[in-house]
DNA sequence: ATTACTGTACTAACACAATAATACAACGCA
DNA sequence: TGCGTTGTATTATTGTGTTAGTACAGTAAT
């Protein structure tokens, strides 16, 4: 089924986030080939150009590398993966805390609401 | 000083978020007049049109209302403010949990990292 | 009445995101 | 060799966000 996107962020950014998460969560192992651009684009129901742009983002981050015309692969550098995992997580958490503050939500309230929301959904 | 914006979201959306937070946190009291569009635009260092678009968002949410050519005011409906506060908070929390999941962060980890990040910064 | 300020509306211009439709070179394989 | 797949590049088009500049009508204060 086509992936879900919101209208706040650019699609290629959302795709990059999703794929980044899949890689960091180990859906694709180091040195494993990921599906070709066209197939990913088809699955996500976006234009191949958009998918390629998302992939180039992950390439710049060092999560993926391209073997010329053979395909795209997850980096073999496991420490790079780990470093990226840390960076992404820290940036995200900092970002969420900032957003919460902008909405007038303190850290304590944030913690409280997250546990609450979690209990109901899963 | 000019407000800070990221390039991921549209500027008017970020402005709306910021002002929404200020209203919900009580920077502007119910029925209090907010600064005119042009002044806010100047402070934020954005175009008046962009600021107006942000304000119209908050108007649709019922947080602000316009008194013709007199100015824009915070709603007098305190229950509406409270309802908005709840809605905004719930949507935000749900959104953050989703984003965290996309990055491979479980709810438990999320709680842990937020307390950690909070301890260091404040 | 005049002046200054308010929200609001409008056009033009530019940048970027996204789609669409191709095209091409390199590689693997039969 | 030839075919199919790979990543990559190109051009054109559409929609939207943002800036810029201008204009207008209603309100308040003088």
Structure description:
Chain A is mainly alpha-helical and 122 residues long. Chain A folds into 2 domains: 11-76, Winged helix-like DNA-binding domain superfamily/Winged helix DNA-binding domain (Arc Repressor Mutant, subunit A, Orthogonal Bundle); 80-121. Helices cover 61% and strands 7% of the residues of chain A. Chain A contains 5 helices and 2 strands; from the N terminus they run H-H-H-E-E-H-H. In chain A, strands 1-2 form a two-stranded antiparallel sheet. The interface between A and B is large, with 36 and 36 residues. The structure holds a DNA duplex (30 and 30 nucleotides).
Provide key terms for this protein.
two-stranded antiparallel sheet, 61% helix, homodimer, Arc Repressor Mutant, subunit A, DNA-binding, 122 residues
- Supply the number of helical segments of chain A: 5
CATH topology of the largest domain in chain A: Arc Repressor Mutant, subunit A
CATH class of the largest domain in chain A: Mainly Alpha
Q: Percent of residues of chain A in helical segments?
A: 55-70%
């Amino acid at each position: 089924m086509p992936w879900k996107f919101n209208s706040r962020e650019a699609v290629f950014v959302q795709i990059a986030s999703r794929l980044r998460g899949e890689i960091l969560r180990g859906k694709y192992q180091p040195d494993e080939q990921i599906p070709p651009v066209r197939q990913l684009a088809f699955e996500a129901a976006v234009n191949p150009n958009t998918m390629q742009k998302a992939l180039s983002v992950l390439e710049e981050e060092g999560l993926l590398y391209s073997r010329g015309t053979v395909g795209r692969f997850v980096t073999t550098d496991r420490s790079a993966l780990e470093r990226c995992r840390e960076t992404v997580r820290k940036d995200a958490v900092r970002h969420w805390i900032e957003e919460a503050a902008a909405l007038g939500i303190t850290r304590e309230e944030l913690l409280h609401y997250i546990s609450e929301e979690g209990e109901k959904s899963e």
